[in-house]
Design a protein that fits this description.
Strand content: 25-35%
Keywords: Cell membrane, Membrane, Transmembrane, Transmembrane helix
Distance between the termini: 76 Å
Number of domains: 2
Subcellular location: Cell membrane; Membrane
Structural class: alpha+beta
Helix content: 25-40%
Membrane topology: Multi-pass membrane protein
Family: Belongs to the SURF1 family.
Protein name: SURF1-like protein
């Protein structure tokens, strides 16, 4: 009986050891996989920005444009802001401000302008950041997300979004469905927004500049906002 008990204990120990080794190997493989993804993302973010039209064409041809830098020029439609729930780096609940930008070609791209705390969700509490001038946005392509069982349902009527559902968000912004919307989000990151909000989603990764008309100088100047 004693020998049988020792044998069972030995088998259980060996099985446990094999399981731990397997988990260790899996974690190392997963770490290598994650590091590979991070390296590819970093390599993409360092590329020269492509135009919005180029990014749209590449995406529609089946190309993976995630995290590619893209530049677009146009005006924000602040009245159509949408709010994507998130937590700040400090764990503070708040929202990503998603605002459609209309380009001179009449194409819309949904721009993630950055984070605001819940207390500043109302645009009237951050009027200085509601830029009305023509802007040049340089940001990173972010692809739409699929709904999962772990993410709450989006509530378009309450304007509370929990996933980057681009088709649904675009429909809520443009109920008629007659406008052309880029098939991805553009995540802008920068600093020094007038009034400080929205705060850049990815500080230092991209920028927004405003075209300021200076009649006395006879030319358009680029004024750095983000």
């Amino acid at each position: 009986m004693q020998t049988s008990g020792l044998l069972k204990l030995t088998i259980a120990t060996l099985l446990g050891l094999a399981l731990l080794i397997g988990l260790g190997v899996w974690q190392l493989q997963r770490l290598e996989w994650k590091e590979g993804i991070i390296s590819r993302i970093e390599a993409r973010t360092e590329r020269k920005p492509m135009s919005l039209q180029q990014a749209i064409a590449l995406t529609r041809e089946g190309g993976n444009t995630a995290y590619y830098p893209v530049r677009a020029e146009g005006r924000f439609h602040h009245s159509r802001e949408r709010y994507l729930y998130t937590l700040s780096l400090e764990g503070e609940p708040g929202w990503h401000v998603i605002t459609p930008l209309e380009t001179v070609d009449g194409i819309f791209v949904l721009v993630d302008r950055g984070f605001v705390p819940d207390a500043l969700r109302d645009p009237s509490s951050r009027r200085l950041g509601q830029i009305e001038e023509v802007v040049t946005v340089t940001g990173l392509v972010r692809t739409p997300e699929e709904q999962s069982v772990f993410i709450p349902d989006n509530d378009d009527k309450a304007n509370q979004w929990f996933s980057r559902d681009l088709p649904a968000m675009a429909r809520s912004m443009f109920p008629g469905g007659t406008v052309q919307v880029a098939p991805f989000f553009l995540e802008a990151g920068a600093s020094d927004v007038p009034g400080g909000w929205p705060e850049a989603a990815r500080p230092g990764s991209s920028s927004i500049t405003t075209t300021c008309n200076m009649p006395s100088l006879g030319s358009a100047w680029r004024c750095a906002w983000w």
